[in-house]
Structure formats: structure tokens, C-alpha cells
Design a protein that fits this description.
- This protein is 15% helix and 45% strand.
- By secondary structure, the protein is mostly beta strands.
- Strands 1, 2, 3, 4, 5, 6, 7, 8 and 9 form a nine-stranded antiparallel beta sheet that branches.
- Strand 6 and strand 7 form a beta hairpin.
- It starts with a helix and ends with a strand.
Length: 193
């Protein structure tokens, strides 16, 4: 539903794709927004209406410093009856950790990730760097997410987690198995908001 010209611009800005998604804000939205994450940047296309009342897309992008994109694998496989890790007691939304200016739904989703992924995603922002954009998307069923992406973007850094989640038989959401890749890149420049 997103035109070829917009898709091409997102690909130019983001570089070789690592992950992407397109979705609507609500069920009454007619046009989707899109997020592309690649080796050169994180880019977002949002549907808008211009002054002539024509549908357009506003594109924003966090362009990465060449060679700054790094990644860490996080494979989280707790036992079925394992208690939540103690590290999660300080997770966002628990009352003892900074909220980083994030909304409750973002904090709730972040708090469901493995502690190591939470740490990797938040580290650039705990010393006061403001988070300018955040979003997430997932696809799948209650017991299996085949696609998951979460990002935090600031003026200096972008962090992203991509991967899958499975709740095996005998497990609960608290002991779900995650296979994630957590990325971090330095921002060279921003385009748009």
C-alpha cells in the first residue's frame, strides 16, 4: 500500500535491510506507516495530508555513522517454573528504574524482554540522552511471535532489538524463550523529526 517511490527512499536512507515493518495506527487508518532498519539508518514514513489536502508521506531518518552499527545476540531460555530474574526488579516500570521519558505501554513491553536485552536497549539513554522516537511491532500468535522489532532513537544513539519469541508447552509469558539480536549505532545526522 506504500508507493514504490516512498519504499525506494526508505531503502536509500536505511541501506541494506536488517528488519522492517508496515502497519496502521488504528483500524480506521487507511494508509500504513512504515519503519525500515538497515546498516545505514533507521527510517520512518508516516502518512500525512499536505496543504493541498493530498495524501503524502513524511519521512524521518536517523542516519548512522558509517561502521558504528554493532550487535549482540541475546538467547533467553529460562526453565518453565523459573522466577523472574532479580535484574528485572530494576526494570523500567518497576518503580526503581528511571522511565527514560517513555510511556507506560512502551515501558510494559520493554519490561517483558530478557534483562540483558533491556540493558542493551537502554544503556545509551540512562545518562540523560533524550529518547526522540520509540516504537515496536510484532507479528504472530499468543504463544509465538515470528517477527519482533523494538527501537529507541535519540540524537546520538539508536538501539534496536529484532527477533522471535516462543512460549513452549509448560511455560508462561514470564518464562518465554527469546531469540533476539540487539543493535546499537551512533547517529551521524537526522532527517525530519
Amino acid at each position: 500500500m506504500i508507493g514504490a517511490r516512498i519504499r525506494q527512499r526508505l531503502a536509500e536512507l536505511s541501506g541494506a535491510a536488517v528488519e522492517w515493518y508496515a502497519a496502521t495506527y488504528s483500524s480506521d487508518e487507511e494508509r500504513p506507516y512504515a519503519v525500515t532498519f538497515g546498516h545505514a539508518g533507521l527510517s520512518i514514513a508516516e502518512p500525512r495530508v499536505n496543504t493541498d489536502h493530498r495524501p503524502v508521506y513524511a519521512i524521518s531518518s536517523f542516519q548512522f555513522v558509517p561502521g558504528s552499527l554493532r550487535h549482540v545476540q541475546v538467547d533467553h531460555r529460562p526453565f518453565p517454573l523459573a522466577p523472574r530474574p532479580f535484574a528485572n526488579a530494576g526494570a523500567p516500570g518497576s518503580g526503581s528504574a528511571p522511565t527514560l521519558g517513555l510511556g507506560q505501554s512502551t515501558l510494559g513491553l520493554l519490561g517483558n524482554l530478557p534483562p540483558r536485552a533491556q540493558e542493551l536497549l537502554q544503556t545509551p539513554f540512562v545518562d540523560g540522552q533524550k529518547i526522540l522516537r520509540d516504537d515496536w511491532h510484532y507479528e504472530g500468535r499468543t504463544n509465538r511471535l515470528n517477527m519482533f522489532m523494538f527501537f529507541l532513537a535519540g540524537a546520538k544513539d539508536v538501539t534496536v532489538a529484532t527477533g522471535t519469541k516462543v512460549i513452549p508447552v509448560g511455560h508462561t509469558d514470564a518464562t518465554a524463550h527469546w531469540s533476539l539480536t540487539c543493535y546499537r549505532a551512533s547517529v551521524a545526522r537526522r532527517i525530519g523529526r
